Amino acid sequence: MADACEMEKLDLGKATSGADGDKQIAGSQQRELLDELVAEILSRMGTLNEAVRCSSLVCSRWRNTWRSICGGVLDFDEFNEALIRRRHDGAADDEEKNRFANRVDQALSCLVHHQNLDALRIGSDLLEMDRVGRWLEFGLAKRVKQLSLWFYYFFSSHSLGLTFFTPEFLAKHDLRRLESLELYGVSSISQRAVDHILSESNCPSLRCFLLNSCVFQKINGGDAVLRLGSSNVLQRLEFNELANVARVELISAPRLLDCWLRGFSLSQVEFGDGIPQLRDAVLCCRQGLLLQWPSRDQFDKIAPRLRNLSIEVVGSDLLPNPAPPPEWLVFKKLTTLGLFVHVKRAPPSFLECTLLLRAAPVLHKLAIWFGDLDGEGEPRGWEGWDSDAARSSTWKHHSLRVLELHGVHPRCGAVDYVRKSELELAANIIMNSPSLSRVVIDTRRREWLHGFRGLIRFSHTTEALRGEIKMELETQLQGCSATSRIHFTYQ
Questions:
Q1: What is the reported pLDDT for 394?
Q2: In a 10 Å sphere around its CB, with 0-12 CB exposed, 13-18 middle and 19+ buried, how is residue 472 labelled?
Q3: 117 vs 142: CA distance, rounded Å
Q4: How many CB atoms sit inside 10 A of residue 207's CB?
Q5: Where is pLDDT greater, at 209 or 339?
Q6: Which residue of 2, 95, 134, 326 is surrounded by the most CB atoms within 10 Å?
Q7: Can you spell out the DSSP letters for 418-473?
């Protein structure tokens, strides 16, 4: 412990020389000393936790590196995000990446005698493939419970291809403890590997399976078909934006509670009879706000039991006169509904929303997110908008309590009409919801940070803009007596 106390007194983060050349030499010597001290600490300390504690006393660099490497859990997220930012600034060189990779190898060597590993999360595709492969194999050999591979450069020259992620590779390891598997931005995935993972005989404890922005291998020139035949323990499933996948079949998952299927139209999804407990779902719709189901049989298998539903509206076609849904299309238990409107699509019309709200008679909360700032073109206004539709409507939604509109802020001053149509939609819903008690108007839009998927920030908004939005909405609601009992929030 005396050594630890001495380390606490050290300050290795500053150069003492006054000249720039001396500072550079001192900084280089300090970096070399840090690396030597890391190896020395790891070799002398009895446990990895002691190494983490003592090295954290020396320098904040180490505290960021080792913070999550304890208790049988390895997580490299903090370094990954810093490395991505530095790479964007042109400062992340190969020497720095190799230095970090060597430290990870040293940390893993200290866990070689541990029988099991609780969680392993590798979150950078800026490192060499052989490094990632060794870390992945180490985690599987330690019978890891939670495995996450998050690579942010999707469809780029940096995207990692896990060509060795095959059934033969997985069969070499004991996956019976695996409870959660998350793959984000991984390319060259084999359909046979996914079938191996979804097999209950291979992964009997798997409760969470996530595939996001992944690329599948072609099968004889054709796209893959993901099939969940039978799983008695799976509770959460996410298939989001998968390339080279033609169809998803969910046959039997008695305990499945949460299902995300983004990037697939309803015609690409087959629901079986063995999903009796599904409560939360994210589905994709290209037209009609999910009112155009392929058949009543498909609707009856999951929709009547849903309590929370999010709909990604990606179609760009305008539907000024949508056809009413059939009488059997009723979400009997749906209490929360979210609409994610693609940036190229116009805001949904009042008639579209009316038809959807009629199909959800006990809905308590409606949230609408307007298009992200993803560089795919300017938003489009609603052509042929009927501003008097709500005032002349005789239909009322008596159960709606909360209304949220996110991303009302336009991308540029030239598209103020978009904002006006969004606020008209809000006003129309407010005037026809007598039980409404809370309205949230969020003027921010989400944007991808420097093009990196998974790193999201919100666009800047001002008090003046929020005041302008508030004034516009109050103008739309002139003469509406219901506003006195509603709490409005502008953010």
A1: 59
A2: buried
A3: 5
A4: 19
A5: 209
A6: 134
A7: HHHHHHHHHHHHHHT-TT--EEEEE---EEEGGG-TT-EEEPP--HHHHHHHHHHH
